[in-house]
Amino acid sequence: MTANAEFDIIVYGASGFTGRLVAEYLARQYGVGGAVKWAMAGRSTEKLAQVRDEIGAPKDTPLVVADAADAASVAAMVARTKAVLTTVGPYQLYGSDLVAACAAAGTDYLDLCGEPAWMRQMIDAHHATAQKTGARIVFSCGFDSIPFELGVYFLEGVAKARLGAPVPRVKGRVRKMKGGFSGGTAASLTATMAAAGRDPSIIAYLTNPFALAGGFQGPDQPRGDKPEHDADLGADVGPFVMATINTKNVHRANALLGHAWGTDFVYDEMAVIDPNGPPPASLGGPNAPKPGEGPSKEERETGFYDVLFVGVAADGRKVRAAVTGDKDPGYGSTSKMIAEAAICLVQDAPEVAGGIWTPGAAMGDRLIKRLVDNAGLTFVDETA
Q1: What is the pTM of this model?
Q2: Cis peptide before 145, with omega less than 30 degrees from 0?
Q3: How far apart are CA 152 and CA 140, in angstroms?
Q4: 215-232, pLDDT tens digit by residue?
């Protein structure tokens, strides 16, 4: 990490919908030039200044011009900060050069990526470089996949405390959720499908739960692609649209932690079916959100999510834990999660080695504490 950098964090994409929410959160929670030194970055000084004024950030909030299409401007931005927090997706279209620049410079990088094939390409291309330079590259610092990866991490802590050992089987079950996915997430899915059409080998990454686990291939995992009755919940469950990315990040976390949850670890995610509720949100179709679009402030404020994790020991004993968020998942909660993850990485986790990480494997309990203290998340042991 560039210890003597001008900034702790540069928010790249601060004039976009989600980046603006991140900047607004940082301004409200930490001010400017205080305990957290941060700046807003994007392609246009004028647009950045407009957003700065609209969100009520101080006039002296630093503005940095950088364009994904201009490698020199990206390199100059990377050189000025300890960490780049980027909301400029789809990352497979706009993120590759930024990851390369951060890895080369020893600058930390955090994003909201849910694009597993691209993540695998970045791991293959830059993990070794980041290990040498000390850059900590952390993907998936939003709703995909922090509540799920840290939910499993927290549940396994409960299992060790209550049962004396981690559990080899964990179920993630979305009990309730209000609020949709971001336009960036929808665009990422579209870009991923287009990439798979051009290169059929990408489909193997998308369908393999261990695609990000560094070459490790564990036991068969439940597919979670059809409705079923879950006896542990006493409820019917169905496919959950984020499961394909979240499960990969959970298995990568287990691998990065030296298979702390076992080499026989089995994990799946599904959503509880509410017979009286609306159909689950879709990432495709004509009504899908567009990049830069998002819900109203009221919709963000009234959104929430509640995810249950059930752990089953080899002898059948069970533990339960829940993770909740107090804002809509795709924007309100995500913007707070990535901001706190960036601060945690830079300020609370200096000893974490360079390389490509998941948030939980890198920051663990320290990130949980920050999210509970500042970002409206809860982590609760629900074991009876």
Answers
A1: 0.95
A2: yes
A3: 15
A4: 999 999 999 999 999 999
